[in-house]
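To the wet lab folks,

You asked to see what we're planning to order before we commit. Fair enough. Below is the target structure as tokens, and below that is the sequence we designed to fit it. If anything looks off to you, flag it before the synthesis order goes out.
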């Protein structure tokens, strides 16, 4: 059973998401919160698998909520998925940098929404290749100072290659095809890189790859 915490200041949206999620046999909404401070307390109480967090809320916004969840060792198993009305912008990238596992635009189709919750619960990549490319485009428009991140030198050449491909939005199957290895080996490279870099999930590898300079995005 996938346990979900809803954190959004709009009751109507929360009720809609809850109805959609609770209708599934393998998903349960364990609690709801109207702002980040309340949501953080409920996360510590219920230890959900997924926290669906609105990016703009009163009292404590989604970015700070994500940052505090990511910083709390007792919440290491909580995957934060950001909910936004704003599409791809600096708020989303800042949320990923804060520790979010991915994000969803609120007008997502119901089937895609449910699929994304299940993907995030598995700890797999929530960012689809097309979304990743758009996110990268936004990031390139306003780049941060790229420095070699601590831990990059600990990666093997194959792990670096796998991380670079993941940062381009490729799935494990696609990475295995590019590297001419099995999907299991590709997953192993990604998992080992995550451990060495202390990344919570695959989305953090995307952030790391671009901020470290491991991958240099092309400008159109």
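Sequence we intend to order:
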């Amino acid at each position: 059973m996938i346990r979900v915490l809803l954190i959004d200041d709009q009751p109507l949206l929360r009720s809609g998401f809850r109805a959609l999620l609770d209708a599934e046999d393998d998903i349960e909404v364990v609690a709801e919160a109207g702002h980040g401070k309340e949501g953080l307390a409920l996360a510590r109480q219920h230890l959900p698998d997924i926290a669906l967090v609105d990016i703009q809320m009163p009292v404590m916004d989604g970015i700070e909520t994500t940052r505090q969840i990511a910083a709390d060792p007792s919440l290491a198993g909580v995957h934060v998925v950001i909910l936004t009305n704003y599409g791809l912008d600096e708020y989303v990238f800042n949320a990923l940098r804060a520790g979010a596992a991915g994000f969803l635009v609120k007008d997502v189709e119901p089937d895609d929404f449910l699929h994304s919750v299940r993907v995030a619960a598995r700890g797999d990549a929530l960012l689809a290749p097309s979304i990743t490319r758009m996110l990268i485009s936004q990031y390139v428009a306003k780049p941060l100072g790229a420095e070699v991140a601590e831990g990059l030198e600990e990666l093997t050449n194959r792990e670096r290659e796998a991380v670079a491909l993941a940062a381009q939005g490729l799935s494990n199957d696609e990475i295995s095809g590019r590297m001419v290895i099995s999907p299991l080996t590709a997953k192993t490279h990604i998992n080992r890189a995550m451990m060495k870099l202390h990344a919570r999930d695959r989305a953090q590898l995307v952030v790391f790859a671009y901020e470290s300079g491991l991958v240099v995005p092309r400008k159109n």
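Structural context that might help your review: The chain has ten helices and five strands. The chain has a mean pLDDT of 81.

Thanks,
Computational group
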